[in-house]
């Protein structure tokens, strides 16, 4: 028996979807030009050639619009990271993690305003709504972003392992939090794996964040060599030191 075809999308629904995309694109243009503080419905409406009240037919509030823009930006970044990961041949998690880390830095340093919205401000300061039950679009997209890195680190550990602290070597207050986090993972992993993962992520994110916001200029005109030094050290922590190659090769 032939499968039933999907219900056709009405012209009205297509027009609404197109308008939603245009509004979010306009919001991103305002963000890049004016920063987070300038991301107001009135400014987006001017960019669209609409009135501010007309935007409420598509988004309930500024917070709703910002949350959807944030979700789209995370999804764009995830696509960039996945493309970098999938371009690695052979598809080994160590080299893939290095490629993903470099792609993250490249996106961040060429999208300052977007990076600032995603990683430079607390969620409440940019108006991302909190949800009593479940997760909103931004939280779901952020989780997909984190899974790109987390999955590769988990694969490295499950394939060949790397040194991790024993549970009793982890501070009790931290151990409790890591246990709660581990309970949400699709694959059971020792607490020490998540401890190492967090340590690596803090160093990687911290390096990129300091570069994007200009906090390394006191010492470095070109932060890339320092980034590569950090990446080489992180590869060593994950037992992948032999897989590190400078980007030129």
From TrEMBL:
Q: Which InterPro entries match?
A: Homeodomain-like_sf (IPR009057), HTH-type_TetR-like_transc_reg (IPR050109), HTH_TetR (IPR001647), MT1864/Rv1816-like_C (IPR025996), Tet_transcr_reg_TetR-rel_C_sf (IPR036271)
Transferase as a keyword of this entry, yes or no, is no
Ranges in coiled-coil conformation: none
- Provide the residue ranges listed under DNA-binding region in this record: 40-59
Asked if the Swiss-Prot or TrEMBL record annotates the protein with the keyword Transcription regulation, the reply is yes
SUPFAM superfamilies the record matches: Homeodomain-like, Tetracyclin repressor-like, C-terminal domain
User: Which residues does the UniProt record annotate as the domain HTH tetR-type?
Assistant: 17-77
Keyword annotations of the record: DNA-binding, Transcription, Transcription regulation
**Under which name does UniProt file this protein?**
TetR/AcrR family transcriptional regulator
Protein's organism: Blastococcus jejuensis
